[in-house]
């Protein structure tokens, strides 16, 4: 497992193979062990700034003329391996080709598939991302400062996971993902102004680059189909705990220190057999619990330390790793892994199934699996469409007293707006409750193990895709391996949130 405490990553010492990673690659058509003659020839051909080394020929002649000592043994001399000039230390193009290259699990081995092209339906707009990212929150860039070392902590940028492109050709800068692009540049200043105005000021947000109008138009309409269920779930929590703050304290437990977060992550990765496959970061800057992205072909999970509570942390890991990551791995094995493949098979969008399933897994094993967060996000977005920022902030005080928490929910619902005095919403966060209720409505007819094995697909496509699936190397998270027990947990979620199956059947025939 590769872990990072916010600035650096921990990796295994070079030479250890993890999960099928390639650790060495010999030049094609040649022996992996060159003869001493080949070494001498290469030594004599070393150049410095494009010119032959002036001292190399005399030194070679001197070594050849050295008399043999007793027993025919040559005199002791400095090993060639230590005679390294700066040019040789960097290596020629041929030497760089021979160097070992570590590869992620899905790129290693003769039969492993390469990551397909990113689907156009993926929320991640960064180039090269083959896995749908979690839509939980924004991503944050972190400075990486420690130097690389064998068996030490080193920055991920130094890890040679993929071959570089042509020399002298700079790769195009990746465009930030949607949720990063929608994070205001002046967030802290506007929050301070809002709080100092006694919550009456309307924030005026600035963004690094405006999003295409079509992207914002796609998410400007807030749905109200499940508004009654959202309110019912939150009222259910308030009847039992009086306030959200008390509910969070009782059911979530205390915030964990870094050491315990690391221990919990390691334990969970062992459960899923993912040790060494996922980079993990800790952050204090995320708006919500966690985010899973793929950076430089490496799955990277960033965890919000402020939300890493004792009884909720494993649910977050089930959401990000047990659902998003493993479904992404399974998706890469299927014939519909690419955008063209999805079109060929006529697949429906992965959402709301993807986020609905992940959100159910967040609460699946809790003693009191209330769907509070998904419900409040749905409710806040719906009312943001007809309210200003300050009006929305006051409106949701019915359910959340803490001003900082209310600010975060309103900010999520108003992302993309410059002048928040105007009505408008960013409706992407409604996907969680929407997906949850659709899955619960059809829970007795869904083959959940098959749904996970098929990858990033809708539950509506499962039976149609079953005959075409490659199931030989798919992976199922540990909590889904017993279908009866899994269905029992889903029934418990329906019961404790006081959801009515007959009403869901009417809403979703």
From TrEMBL:
Keywords (A to Z) from UniProt: Hydrolase, Metalloprotease, Protease
Biased composition (Low complexity): 50-65
Bias kind Basic and acidic residues: ranges: 36-46, 91-101
Pfam families xref list: MATCAP (PF08014)
Superkingdom of the source species: Eukaryota
Keyword Protease set for record: yes
Region (Disordered): 1-130
Biological processes per GO annotation: proteolysis
Protein's UniProt keywords contain Iron: no
InterPro entries reported in the protein's UniProt record: MATCAP
Obligatory cofactor(s): Zn(2+)
An example molecular function term from Gene Ontology annotations: metallopeptidase activity
Protein name as annotated: Microtubule associated tyrosine carboxypeptidase 1
Organism phylogeny: Eukaryota, Metazoa, Chordata, Craniata, Vertebrata
């Amino acid at each position: 497992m590769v872990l990072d405490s916010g600035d650096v990553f921990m990796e295994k010492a070079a030479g250890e193979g993890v999960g099928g990673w390639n650790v060495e690659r010999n030049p094609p058509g040649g022996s992996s062990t060159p003869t001493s003659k080949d070494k001498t020839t290469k030594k004599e051909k070393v150049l410095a700034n494009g010119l032959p080394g002036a001292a190399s020929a005399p030194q070679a002649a001197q070594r050849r003329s050295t008399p043999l000592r007793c027993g025919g043994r040559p005199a002791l001399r400095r090993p060639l391996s230590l005679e390294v000039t700066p040019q040789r230390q960097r290596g020629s193009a041929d030497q760089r080709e021979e160097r070992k290259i570590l590869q992620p699990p899905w790129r290693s081995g003769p039969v492993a598939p390469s990551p397909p092209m990113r689907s156009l339906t993926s929320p991640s707009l960064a180039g090269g991302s083959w896995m749908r990212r979690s839509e939980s929150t924004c991503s944050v860039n972190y400075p990486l400062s420690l130097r690389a070392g064998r068996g030490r902590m080193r920055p991920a940028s130094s890890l040679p996971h993929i071959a570089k492109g042509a020399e002298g050709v700079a790769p195009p800068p990746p465009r930030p993902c949607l949720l990063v692009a929608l994070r205001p540049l002046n967030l802290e200043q506007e929050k301070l102004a809002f709080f100092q105005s006694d919550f009456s000021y309307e924030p005026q947000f600035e963004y690094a680059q405006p999003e295409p109008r079509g992207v914002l138009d796609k998410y400007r309409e807030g749905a109200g189909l499940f508004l009654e269920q959202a309110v019912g779930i939150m009222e259910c929590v308030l009847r039992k705990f009086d306030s959200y703050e008390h509910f969070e304290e009782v059911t979530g437990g205390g915030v964990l220190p870094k050491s315990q977060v690391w221990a919990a992550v390691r334990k969970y990765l062992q459960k899923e057999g993912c040790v060494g496959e996922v980079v993990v970061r800790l952050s204090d800057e995320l708006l919500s619990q966690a985010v899973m992205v793929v950076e430089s072909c490496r799955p990277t999970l960033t965890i919000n330390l402020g939300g890493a509570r004792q009884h909720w942390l494993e649910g977050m890991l089930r959401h990000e790793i047990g659902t998003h990551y493993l479904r992404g791995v399974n998706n890469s094995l299927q014939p519909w892994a690419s955008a063209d493949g999805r079109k060929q098979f006529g697949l429906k969008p992965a959402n709301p199934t993807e986020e609905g399933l992940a959100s159910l897994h967040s609460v699946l094993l809790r003693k009191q699996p209330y769907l509070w967060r998904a419900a409040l996000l749905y409710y806040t977005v719906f009312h943001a469409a007809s309210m200003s920022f300050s009006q929305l902030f006051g409106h949701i005080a019915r359910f959340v007293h803490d001003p900082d928490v209310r600010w975060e929910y309103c900010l999520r619902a108003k992302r993309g707006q410059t002048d928040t005095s105007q009505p408008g919403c960013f409706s992407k966060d409604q996907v969680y409750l929407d997906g949850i209720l659709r899955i619960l409505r059809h829970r007795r007819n869904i083959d959940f193990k098959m749904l996970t094995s098929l990858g990033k697909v809708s539950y509506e496509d499962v039976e149609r895709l079953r005959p075409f699936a490659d199931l030989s190397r798919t992976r199922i998270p540990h909590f889904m391996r017993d279908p009866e027990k899994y269905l029992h947990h889903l029934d418990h979620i329906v019961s404790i949130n006081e959801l009515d199956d007959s009403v869901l059947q009417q809403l979703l025939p």
